[in-house]
Amino acid sequence: MSHNPLKDITATVGKELVDKRITLCVTGSVAASQAPEIARELMRRGADVYAVLSPAACKLISPDLMEWATGNPVIKEITGRVEHVELAGDWPGKSDLILVAPATANTIGKIAYGIDDTPVTTVVTTALGSGIPVIIAPAMHQSMYKHPIVLDNIKKLRCIGVDVLKPEIVEGKAKIIKTSAIVDAVIQKLSFKDLESLRCLVTAGPTVEHIDPVRIITNRSSGRMGVAIARETSRRGAETTLIIGPTEIEIPLSIKTIRVETSQNMLEAVENELTSKDYKVFIGSAAVTDYKPAVPQKFKIQTRDTPKLVIELQATPKIIERVRKIRPEIFIVAFKAEYGLTDSELIRRGREYLQQSSADLVVANHVGVDGVGFASETNEVFIVDRDFKVTHISRASKGEIARHLIDYVAMKLGVKRQ
Predict the structure, then answer these.
(1) Is the pLDDT assigned to residue 349 strictly greater than 80?
(2) Is the predicted pLDDT of residue 371 greater than 90, yes or no?
(3) From CA 288, how far away is CA 290, in angstroms rounded?
(4) For labeling, which of 212, 235, 338, 405 is most exposed (least CB within 10 Å)?
(5) Would you say 165 and 182 are in contact if contact means Cβ atoms under 8 Å apart?
(6) What pLDDT shows up at residue 418?
(7) Do residues 240 and 224 touch, judged by C-beta distance below 8 A?
(8) What is the average per-residue pLDDT within 365-391?
């Protein structure tokens, strides 16, 4: 097969959709301008994307642009090649998923009633008949979205197994949701559900400790690693709760999220969850502040009045120890971040921490290195288990690190892929 330079971005961000064929159906909404971005982001996670445009969509977005975006020919009419059967018929080469993004009220109504007068509606009807998953991302004026019949059509589609995503209500419009949320919905739908029997509790991000009402002690953790882990367990079917400190990282709406601030807040949230639900796995990826001021000041410290300030610090509680006490049988994954060490020294520290703690696995990683650890999109880790076996996961996106880590946890728990 000849090289296609338009597909050079395939799987450059992640491999969640490798070997998946996705048909992206575009209808006549101004949100069609988002379609190339959606296609490219799906490709960056490994998907092979084919675009189908309705006649109305062709007036808003060029088929040539979508061919560039996907690297594949664009379908804008059904011909003697029976393109709807090629993409969505019941045969071994059919698409793995049909994504309608954006979807107008008109198209949603036609799909709900089996009306096939555009390439998009014909492909979707064929897909529903052959059992292909369908995801719809609506985009329309809010008054249209609130129309009782439109809402009834959406309800009808959900009743037959179609995933209709909730739009973002902004400025009187039901706008198509962010590309990242659409991609996450696709990955969630196509992920194997080997963790459906598990309930996972994940901590993430930094915590802060107050010196006074305006000054804090904290660290550089962004929360990306923990969010990636929670996203991975949720995608694979686990009932996931994320307890996260102050961070601006986007978190999928499908994940139950508890936001906290201090180490004490995080401890209390963990205790509340463990005593109210039967969690099987605890993953402590949060960078909990190790020390806090013994006596936080109730008022802002005046610098002119206090040219030299001495703060007495005291250790914060160890959350993992409390987790083990509340749930002796729970599987615990701890994280150990170190600065300025060699790989062999980092592994040694990970082994020492495993001996000292009650964790079942320790994930050790460097911080302060470009492209690794805090505030980075990528990471590199060493997993140390109770047999002192060390597994190295080389530098990759935090999503990929999370996937490999959860694979390892599933293996340790004896979970088999469905």
Answers:
(1) yes
(2) no
(3) 6
(4) 212
(5) yes
(6) 54
(7) no
(8) 88
CATH class for the domain made up of 199-412: alpha beta
Q: Is 414 left (phi over 0), alpha (psi -120 to 50) or beta?
A: left
Contact 75, 50 (CB under 8 A): yes
Q: Which long-range contacts (CB under 8 A, 24 or more apart) does 58-62 make?
A: 59/28, 60/28, 60/29, 60/30, 60/32, 60/33, 61/26, 61/32, 61/33, 61/35, 61/36
Instruction: Mark residue 367 as left, alpha or beta (left: phi above 0; alpha: psi -120 to 50; beta: remaining).
Output: beta
List all residues 6 or more positions away from 145 whose beta carbon is below 8 Å from its beta carbon.
Answer: 105, 138, 151, 167, 169, 174
381 closest CA partner among 357, 409, 400, 360: 400
User: What are the CA-CA distances from residue 260 to residues 146, 221, 291, 297, 314 (Å)?
Assistant: 35, 14, 17, 20, 20
Query: Fold match between 5-190 and 199-412?
Result: yes
Q: What is the pLDDT of residues 204-260, one digit of tens each?
A: 999 999 999 999 999 999 999 999 999 999 999 999 999 999 999 989 888 999 999
- Give me the CATH code for the 5-190 domain, please: 3.40.50.1950
- Write the pLDDT tens digit of every residue in 283-317: 999 999 999 999 999 998 887 777 788 899 999 99
Average confidence (pLDDT) over 130-148: 97
Cα(187)–Cα(235) distance, rounded to whole angstroms? 7
- pTM comes to 0.87
Average pLDDT over the chain, rounded to whole?
A: 94
Residue 150: phi and psi, rounded to 5, are: -60, -45
Residue 54 and residue 25: Cα distance in Å, rounded?
A: 8
**Sequence-ordered alpha helix ranges (H) in 94-147:** 105-112, 119-130, 142-145
Please tell me the distance from the alpha carbon of residue 167 to that of residue 253, in angstroms, as a whole number. Answer: 12
Angle made by CA atoms 68, 70, 76, in degrees to the nearest 5: 85
**42's tokens:** 């799906």
What gap in Å lies between CA 207 and CA 217, rounded to an integer?
9
Q: Give the torsion through C-alpha atoms of 193, 94, 158, 187, to 10 deg.
A: 40
Q: Is the preceding omega at residue 102 within 30 degrees of 0, hence cis?
A: yes
Radius of gyration of the chain from its Cα atoms, rounded to whole angstroms? 25
Closest CA to 107 of 99, 115, 95: 115
- For residue 173, give Cα distances in angstroms to 30, 60, 176: 12, 18, 9
Q: At 149, phi and psi to the nearest 5?
A: -75, -40
Residue with tokens 């080997």: 194
Residue 317: exposure state from Cβ atoms within 10 A (0-12, 13-18, ≥19): middle
